[in-house]
Design goal:
The chain has helices at about 1-15, 45-60, 65-75, 75-90, 95-115, 120-145, 190-205, 215-235, 235-255, 260-275, 285-300, 315, 335-345, 345-360, 365-380, 385, 390-405, and strands at about 20-25, 30, 35, 40-45, 170-175, 175-180. By secondary structure, it is mainly alpha-helical. It has two domains: about 1-120 and about 285-409, no CATH class; about 120-235, no CATH class. A hairpin with a 2-residue loop joins β5 and β6.
Length: about 400
């Protein structure tokens, strides 16, 4: 039973960056006559793996749910928050989308619980992540070089069909050359960059992986190199800035007496990232983000106390006239504005209090601080931590593993 549980967890970690799933488009998924993926309930392969892990854990310990319910009943704050969330869903613009998003939040909590109580070795975790990262890098480089998706077997990992000529595709220009940004199996290169930046911070600041064994050290360094390349070829400027800041902090905090080692550790990542940072992307990106932020303020003002409902932001955003000649509908590129708009101020404040209470034992951990920085920094400029399957599940995975290994990390 224990071996089966470990295999399921390793499969979940391996398939975590993939997005193969089935979408169920409902009337509320259609905005301006166009089906929107983010408004369509979906069932992913990773969802099935999470469900299988839950069933196996409950089969092994049938009293788990009863124990958890007893704990929740004694915590009035959690009970109050749950009642607020039910009200938020009930009064949402689309209750169906609210229910779906609530299920996704419960799934994230379940993943955190599974990882927290798992007995999987951190080196096995690294191997699973490393194997898929290598595949993601190969696919991402193929996108950059070929200028289009590869499809074939990669369709089974969730790779979408696109090319440089696809409307709205993410691309950059360098020295007059148009380059497709690496998508790998993510819906957008920014989500790819943020995903591997969070893993980069987790691995880089984790002393557990600084094993005296040569193999463990090789695996760690190889993962850091691959994740660095994935961040670079995503051409995500926010991820690149986060990468440079984390690398510089890591170099400066080391007690090495080798001045040249420290200097090279600072100059190389900054110079390499600087070259790719100069690539020219969408010239309208700043205007779009400002327009989305302005719209979010208007939505928050109109739904200050109750919010528009979990998962309902795009429905509210769809009521605003689009100031572009093409269809443009995205969530506000700021997770804090997005949370306030969907939850309302009271519930958002309550959820923040609960989060701080849960993670308080981790405040002194360098790994925790590094990962929290990544989520806050990138979350100030994008929305994928709250909207994209891969990024949403990664958060409880790394924090669950951190909680599991608090004594050593």
């Amino acid at each position: 039973m224990l071996n089966v549980k470990k295999i399921l967890l390793l499969l979940l970690l391996f398939f975590l960056p993939t997005q193969l799933g089935m979408f169920f488009f409902i009337p509320d998924s259609i905005v301006h006559g166009i089906p929107i993926d983010l408004l369509a309930p979906a069932l992913y392969v990773t969802d099935i793996l999470v469900l299988a892990s839950v069933i196996l854990n409950l089969f092994q310990d049938p009293g788990t749910i009863k124990k958890m319910l007893k704990r929740v009943q004694h915590d009035k704050i959690i009970v109050i928050a749950f009642l607020f969330i039910i009200g938020n869903v009930f009064f949402a613009l689309s209750p169906i989308m609210g229910i779906y998003k609530l299920i996704k939040l419960m799934e994230m909590g379940t993943v955190f619980w599974i990882m927290k109580k798992s007995k999987i070795e951190i080196n096995h975790v690294l191997i699973a992540l490393l194997a898929m990262a290598a595949l993601q890098l190969a696919l991402g480089l193929a996108h950059v070089i070929a200028g289009n998706s590869i499809q074939g077997i990669f369709y089974l990992l969730g790779e979408r069909s696109f090319s440089l000529s696809t409307p709205g595709i993410a691309k950059v220009s360098m020295q007059g050359l148009e380059i497709l940004r690496a998508y790998a199996t993510f819906p957008h290169p920014n989500a790819l960059g943020g995903f591997y930046l969070l893993l980069y911070s987790f691995i880089l600041f984790s002393p557990t992986l600084s094993s005296p064994r040569v193999l463990g050290e090789i695996q760690k360094n190889l993962f850091l190199i691959i994740s660095t390349l994935l961040i670079i070829f995503s051409f995500s400027k926010v991820a690149l800035m986060g990468y440079v800041l984390l690398t510089v902090v890591n170099v400066l905090r080391k007690t090495s007496t080798c001045t040249w080692c420290k200097l090279s550790g600072l100059v190389l990542p900054i110079a390499l990232s600087g070259v790719f940072f100069m690539a020219q992307g969408d010239p309208e990106t700043i205007d779009k983000r400002i327009w989305l932020a302005t719209s979010s303020f208007m939505i928050i003002r109109e739904h200050l106390l109750t919010g528009v409902g979990l998962g309902n932001y795009l429905i509210a955003q769809g009521t605003f006239p689009i100031p572009y000649s093409y269809h443009f509908l995205q969530p506000v590129h700021n997770i804090f504005l997005l949370l306030i708009a969907e939850l309302g101020v009271p519930l958002c404040a309550l959820m923040t209090y609960i989060f701080v209470k849960i993670v308080r034992p981790l405040w002194e951990s360098p790994v925790f601080n590094a990962m929290l920085f990544v989520i806050i920094f990138t979350g100030m400029f994008d929305h994928y931590w709250l909207t994209i399957q891969q990024n949403m599940l990664l958060v409880p995975v790394v924090f669950g593993l951190l909680t599991n290994n608090t004594k050593t990390i």
